[in-house]
Every structure is written in structure tokens, then in C-alpha cells.
Amino acid sequence: MDTVGKNEKVIKEYIQNQLQEDKLADQMSMKEFIDPFTGEPVK
């Protein structure tokens, strides 16, 4: 039974999904350091 190729494919898909989720999480958690409306630093 050859499981090496199957496992490799599953692992690649998992890593791709994790990278996409990480990017989304980073975008949602980005703190605004400059107020986009006033242009002043956020305290």
C-alpha cells in the first residue's frame, strides 16, 4: 500500500488552508496606528 503520495497531497492542502487563514487573521487583527478619517495618531 502506497500512502506517501496521498499524505503529501493532504499535507500540502492543509498548509495552503492554514496560510490563507493566517492571512485573514492578520488582516482582521491589524491595529490602526493612524486614524483613517482624521490622519492623527491613535492613542
Polypeptide structure, described:
With 43 residues, the protein is mainly alpha-helical. The protein is 58% helix and 0% strand. It has one helix and no strands. The chain has one helix at 4-28. It starts with a helix and ends in a 15-residue tail after the last helix.
Condensed summary:
The protein contains 1 helix and no strands. The longest helix is centred in the middle third of the chain and has 25 residues.
How large is the count of helical segments? 1
Structural shape: rod-shaped
Cα gyration radius (Å) = 20 Å
Helix and strand element order:
H
Helix content: 55-70%
First CA to last CA: what distance?
A: 61 Å
Poorly predicted residue ranges: none
> Mean pLDDT, rounded to whole units?
80
Strand content: under 5%
Summing up helix and strand content along with how strands pair, one would put the structural category as mainly alpha
How would you sum up the major sheet? none
The total strand number stands at 0
Which key terms come to mind for this protein?
rod-shaped, about 45 residues, single chain, 1 helix
